[in-house]
Write a structure and sequence with these properties.
It is built from 2 helices and 6 strands. By secondary structure, the protein is of the alpha+beta class. Strand 5 and strand 6 form a beta hairpin. The two termini are 25 Å apart. 18% of the residues are buried.
Length: 96
């Protein structure tokens, strides 16, 4: 089971980050909206969807991605959650 890892990037660093992702063994694609325009976050950054195949060491990969100049954040979440909410019918939820 593999998924792409979203990486939030400053728009001017797109090429640099794309090349660094390639060095880390990934393939980066710009997230686009209708008509091929780039998707921009509420902070004006872009998202690169990065495919690394099977990620054997998510903690190390997350650290390496975050060290790249121009990366704002990655979608690898390695910290265990403090609380888990489970949705129920009728808009209710349980805290696990």
């Amino acid at each position: 089971f593999t998924r792409t890892v979203p990486v939030e990037v400053h728009p001017q660093a797109r090429n640099l980050v794309t090349n660094e992702i390639k060095k880390l063994g990934g393939k980066a694609e710009l997230r686009s909206i209708d008509r091929g325009y780039p998707f921009f976050t509420e902070n004006g950054n872009i998202i690169l969807d990065c495919n690394f195949g099977v990620i054997k060491n998510p903690k190390m990969l997350s650290q390496k991605i975050k060290q790249v100049t121009g990366v704002i954040e990655s979608g690898i979440f390695i910290k265990k959650p403090d609380v888990i909410y489970r949705a129920k019918a009728g808009g209710k939820f349980d805290i696990v």
